[in-house]
Write a structure and sequence with these properties.
Low-confidence stretches: 4-26, 348-370, 389-394
CATH architecture of the largest domain: 3-Layer(aba) Sandwich
GO biological process, one term: proteolysis
Distance between the termini: 13 Å
Helix content: 25-40%
Strand content: 15-25%
CATH topology of the largest domain: Beta-lactamase
InterPro entries: Beta-lactam/transpept-like (IPR012338), Peptidase_S11 (IPR018044), Peptidase_S11_N (IPR001967)
Number of strands: 17
CATH class of the largest domain: Alpha Beta
Shape: globular
Strand order of the largest sheet: 2-1-9-8-7
Protein name: D-alanyl-D-alanine carboxypeptidase
Structural class: alpha+beta
Family: Belongs to the peptidase S11 family.
GO molecular function: serine-type D-Ala-D-Ala carboxypeptidase activity
Length: 394
């Protein structure tokens, strides 16, 4: 009888360990308090998590990301900007870099003051210089958002994000804008700047980013950029970018009740992304053949997928490369370039429609081996105790 009890107890313990292992490996979504949030992979553009990501909300100073990239793309950064009375700090609410009427500053310096210190006065000065007035800037930047970046649910009334009931965006739109902006080297460099010397007419200081993860006040590895925001109506808003060897993440959180909550949510989302996903690539000019037609990839392609997940690549008869996971869910698709049938040779290797990533295949074999270890051990232990128990009863 004692052996039976021991046998059953052992089975229960092993089963508990096995179930715990499965639970730890499951793709549990993070629980966050912010009213809206999103994780986007910057290279593939794939959304890895979202919560109310298409609900219109107030962005507060995350607006300045849009103002900055618009100015970088539409003006000369070396231009000298003369500060108007309207743009002087004494006529601006909220955070400023203490600009004075008549002061002259390079446009690039004003953009840095806008992103690093969240200077609302710098935002007005930039808008007036680039578009002539804040009102015209609002028209110009909304046209830019729709027709250049391609977002549909954002409408801006000012360059800084101070509250206006018609000044709205969504978490997904902000992620798309940030992805677009980070592809610009000048923007990415400024966005990742932790501090800079500021020698203004009325203010001589060191500007330090307000973003606690970026400046290291809250330690987290691989942070590449960040912007904070707050007005009463928006709550706490946060944009964060981070990158490791496998992923480049953009995390947006909107309408957190407090600053700590926004950072906690951001860390949870970053951890979720880095713990569960990786981005793989297909080289430019990789070739595929389907029903006698030859296609190539027009550029290096990126797709993001769950770790330890088998990936299937298929080419449709209309020349679309479809990436699917092991559950046959399409995670990405790309339009391929059809080659002239007179081409003598397909570039870059294979003429097969299924081109596998060797690292990915090895990873899948390793994952399969890991999944078989625990069940195998269970069977061995069961067999051992079965023989013992059988012997006991005989």
């Amino acid at each position: 009888m004692r052996r039976c009890v021991l046998f059953l107890t052992t089975l229960i313990v092993i089963n508990t360990i096995f179930l715990s292992t499965l639970s730890a490996e499951s793709n549990d979504l993070p629980s966050i308090e912010s009213e809206a949030a999103i994780i986007m992979e910057a290279e593939s553009g794939q959304i890895l998590y979202k919560k109310n990501a298409n609900s219109q909300m107030y962005p507060a100073s995350l607006t300045k990301i849009i103002t900055a990239i618009y100015a970088i793309e539409n003006a000369d950064l070396n231009d000298m900007v003369t500060i108007s009375s309207n743009a002087s700090a004494k006529n601006i609410e909220g955070t400023t870099v203490f600009l004075e009427k008549g002061e002259k500053d390079r446009l690039e310096k004003l953009i840095k003051g806008l992103l690093i210190n969240s200077g609302n006065d710098a935002g007005v000065a930039i808008a007036e210089y680039v578009s002539g007035s804040e009102e015209q800037f609002s028209e110009d930047i909304n046209d830019y958002l729709e027709n250049v970046i391609g977002v549909e649910h954002t409408h801006l009334k000012n360059p800084h994000g101070l509250f206006d009931p018609e000044h709205v965006t969504t978490a997904e739109d902000l992620a798309k804008v940030t992805k677009y902006a980070m592809e610009n080297e000048t923007f990415a460099e400024i966005f990742g700047t932790k501090e800079m010397e500021w020698d203004g007419k009325a203010w001589d200081t060191t500007l330090i980013t307000h973003h606690k993860l970026l400046k290291g006040e809250i330690p987290y590895e691989n942070i590449t950029g960040g912007k904070t925001g707050f007005v009463n109506e928006s709550g706490y808003t946060l944009t964060t970018t981070a990158q490791n060897d496998d992923l480049s993440l953009i995390v947006i959180t909107l309408k957190s009740n407090d600053s700590n909550g926004a950072y906690e949510d951001t860390i949870n989302l970053l951890n979720y992304g880095f713990d569960h996903y990786k981005t793989s690539y297909i080289a430019e000019d990789t070739s595929f053949t389907i029903e006698g037609d030859n296609y190539i990839t027009p550029k290096k392609l990126a797709y993001t997928h769950l770790l330890n997940n088998e990936i299937d690549k298929r080419v449709t008869t209309n020349g679309e490369l479809v990436i699917a996971n092991e559950d046959e869910e399409i995670i990405h698709s790309f339009k391929l370039t059809k080659m002239d049938s007179k081409e003598e040779k397909l570039p870059n290797g294979s003429d097969n429609e299924n081109i596998e990533n060797q690292d990915e295949v090895q990873l899948n074999y390793i994952a399969l081996g890991q999944q078989l270890v625990v069940p195998t051990l269970i069977l061995i232990v069961i067999g051992y105790f079965y023989r013992k128990v059988k012997k006991f009863f005989i």
